[in-house]
Amino acid sequence: MAKKLVIKVTAGADAPERCSQAFTVAAVAVASGVEVSLWLTGESSWFALPGRAAEFELPHAAPLPDLLESVLAAGSVTLCTQCAARRGIEQRDTVEGVRIAGAQVFVSEIMADGVQSLVY
Q1: Cross-referenced Pfam families, in alphabetical order (predicted)?
Q2: How many CB atoms sit inside 10 A of residue 46's CB?
Q3: Closest Cα partner for 38 from 82, 2, 69, 60?
Q4: CA atoms of 66 and 64, how far apart (whole Å)
Q5: Which of 72, 35, 116, 33 lies closest to 64, judged by CA?
Q6: Could you tell me the CATH number of the domain that includes residue 23?
Q7: CB atoms near residue 51 (< 10 Å)
Q8: Are 7 and 38 within 8 A, CB to CB?
Q9: Please, are residues 71 and 38 in contact by the beta-carbon 8 Å criterion?
Q10: What is residue 18's three-state secondary structure?
């Protein structure tokens, strides 16, 4: 089993099923004891802002705020630096526990021994 799972989610409300799958896999992995790093990029960047996950709806899916909360509690959530800048999001704007970091940090995470990565 991988020591760490890095998940990069690019989809948001524009592709709700892909978005929900990424958050669900992250939350299930955390609940299974896997170290998880969830990266918010593209349209999923908006979920780094307070209240935005609560606006997301997908029938028969777990509530996004609950999934995000579980990952934040036991894993890490990172907002892409460039994605944040393009949307005018600054660190002070984000949900507590979300960090902003760039490609160098992403590459170092996915290149570490024992890491598996997924992109949604």
Answers
A1: DsrE (PF02635)
A2: 18
A3: 69
A4: 5
A5: 72
A6: 3.40.1260.10
A7: 9
A8: yes
A9: yes
A10: helix
Average pLDDT over residues 103-108: 96
> Three-class SS of residue 84?
helix
Length of the chain measured in residues? 120
pLDDT digit string, tens, across residues 23-43: 999 999 999 999 999 999 999
pLDDT digits (tens, 9 = 90+) for 70-105: 999 999 999 999 999 999 999 999 999 999 999 999
Rounded to whole angstroms, the Cα distance separating 80 from 103 reads 8
Instruction: Tell me the C-alpha to C-alpha distance, in Å, between residue 85 and each of 60, 75, 101, 116.
Output: 33, 24, 11, 27
Structural domains of the chain, count:
1
| Residue 18 in tokens | 């892909």
Instruction: Look at residue 113 and give its three-state secondary structure.
Output: coil
